[in-house]
Structures are given as C-alpha cells and as structure tokens.
C-alpha cells in the first residue's frame, strides 16, 4: 500500500492581498514553498472573518500574522517573516533576522514599512520580487531536471 503523500502545512500566513508589497512577497514565498509547508490566506478578502481566530482584522492588517499549526502559536511581524523564510529554504535570510543587530533594525523598520506599504513605489517592488521569483523558478527547474529519472542528483 502506498504511503500517504498528502502534504500538511506547518504554517498558516495571513497577509494583506490588497497591498502590492505584501502580495509580491507572498507570491515569492509561494514559489519557494515546494514542500507545501505554508498555507496562504488573504486577510483582505471580503469574506475573510478573523473573529474565530481571536484576532482583529485591524491587527492583521498592521502586522504579518503566522499561525504555527503544531501548537497554534502566533508569530507576528519580524518573527513571522523569519519562520516563513526558514520554511521556504531561505535559511540565510531567516538567520539574518535572528542576528541581534539585524533583528533590532528589522523590528524598528517594520512598523514604518507597514504604515507606508500602500504608498511605496511599485517599480522597485516589482523588480525585486520578480527577480526573486525568477530565481525560485530556476531553482525549481534545476531540481526537476536533477530528479527526472526518479533519483535526485544535486
């Protein structure tokens, strides 16, 4: 009998899909989530109701929220990003967000970015995240090519 190959997410991220920066970052993470470890929820969708989660929509729109499904713990703001980057194999970024100096800088900068996210210039956002998505697609293609015959060679 074949083993159960159903993927069970480890994290559920709630993001502002009406924000171009947020949407671009989540699409980048979606492209890198080859293991299906993350469930993505657009909290800006009109039918989204945060009440059963015990969190207000205002809170979700003012900081990225990730629910760790193993213990229902909330990761909010920079720790949420760190968990998402780690889950998608971007361990260098995750480590950087744990570095004391960089973590402090990210914690101080993040609230400003959240407040101004709808007014940030779109061209640089597209440029940065399109490059990141291209790199993720190239890496996925290499993995597919390396595993073509059923045995992976990396």
Characterization of the model:
One of its GO terms (molecular function) is protein-disulfide reductase activity. InterPro entries: DCC1-like, DCC1_Trx. The protein is an alpha+beta fold and 154 residues long. The chain has one domain (11-145). Helices cover 51% and strands 12% of the residues. The protein contains six helices and four strands, in the order E-H-E-H-E-E-H-H-H-H. The protein starts with 10 loop residues before the first strand and ends in an 8-residue tail after the last helix. The model has no long low-confidence stretch (mean pLDDT 84).
Quick structural overview:
This protein is of the alpha+beta class and 154 residues long.
Average residue pLDDT: 84
User: Count of DSSP E strands?
Assistant: 4
| Count of domain modules | 1
* Cα distance spanning the termini: 29 Å
Apparent shape:
globular
Q: Give the fraction of residues assigned to helices.
A: 40-55%
CA-atom Rg in angstroms: 17 Å
> Low-confidence runs (pLDDT<50, min 5 residues)?
none
Strand content is: 5-15%
The ordered H/E elements are EHEHEEHHHH
Major β-sheet annotation:
4 strands, mixed
In the sheet with the most strands, the strands line up as 2-1-3-4
Discrete helix count: 6
SS-derived structural category: alpha+beta
